[in-house]
Amino acid sequence: MSQPGERPTAPQRYPFHTEDFPYQRNLDNLITRREYLGLLTLTSFGLFVGTALLALRTLIPEEADSKQAVVAVDAVPEGESFRFHYPTSDDPALLVHLPGDRFVAYSQICTHLACAVLWDREGSRLECPCHEGFFEVETGRPLAGPPLRPLTRIALQVENGTIFAMGRERA
Amino acid sequence: MTRQSPNHDHESQSDEKVQPGKEAAIYGRLAVVAVVVVLQLWFLILALDEFLSGDLTAPWVLAGFSGISFLTAAWMGRVSRI
Fold it and tell me: A74 Cβ partners below 8 Å, 6+ apart?
């Protein structure tokens, strides 16, 4: 209580933040259960449209990949790999020289989260260093880690001592 | 204290006399539609995975399932009937 002669102060109001951030509790009921049900139905329609668009996308034929020279056979020793781009300069790919003069090539894009897949010579497998995903070098199928889909294989052909990429083969 | 909501339907809904079982019916439909939506999300993820794997048939089947799911959700979501 104020003493005689003391200047009276204005009563304090709590909490202060409600002045800057007013919260109207009576607006909590703006969305009713019926409206929420309608919102869920709308979401259901959106998910159906998304799946249907994906199905329609399968009708669009992909452009055939062109034949491109990759590297000379002698330039990649056995057990080594060679990085190139196919079918465009934005698509990294990896060529591996396997024992027995066999060559395999895959898209270097990991099927998990699109990191660059590398050749693991010691383990004789392809490795995605981002999340420790491993792929079989013979087939490109996932061996361990998060990837579930095989790598996109690139068909090869050897002509006159040069390796050519002929097209992509999806599993 | 009177409500300041601009939408007066909410007031009328809260004031109206609720029939027995009506609230349970709404909650039941909400639960079913929520499960259907989660299923559809799974269908979409599965369709994308199959599409990226090169399977051109599975997305159509999954789109069919998603369409049936949507019709189920739309049927369950007939708010005017409850």
Answer: A161
User: Rounded to 5, what percent of chain B is helix, strand, coil?
Assistant: 75, 0, 25
Q: Does A25 touch chain B (CB under 8 A)?
A: no
Confidence of residue B4 (pLDDT cuts 50, 70, 90): very low
Contacts of B74 in chain A (CB under 8 A): 41, 44-45
Average pLDDT, chain B: 79
Phi first, then psi, for residue A35 (nearest 5°) are: -65, -40
Candidates B1, B16, B32, B33: best to mutate against A (most CBs of A within 10 A) is B33
Cβ–Cβ contact A42 with B under 8 A:
no
Whether A95 contacts A77, CB under 8 Å: no
CA distance B18 to chain A (A): 14
Is A153 in contact with A166 (CB distance < 8 Å)? Answer: no
- Token pair listed for A4: 């005689």
CB within 8 Å: A44 and B62: no
**Inter-chain residue contact A44 with B40, CB threshold 8 Å:** yes
* Average of per-residue pLDDT across B55-75: 94
Q: What is the DSSP code (8-state) at residue A7?
A: P
- Closest-CA distance of chain B to residue A115, Å: 16
B51–A40 C-beta distance less than 8 A: no
Question: What are the residues whose beta carbons fall under 8 Å from the beta carbon of A49, sequence distance 6 or more?
Answer: none
The token pair at A116 is 């660059």
pTM score, whole prediction: 0.65
Of A126 and B23, which is predicted with more confidence?
A126
Checking if the pLDDT of A57 tops 90, the result is: yes
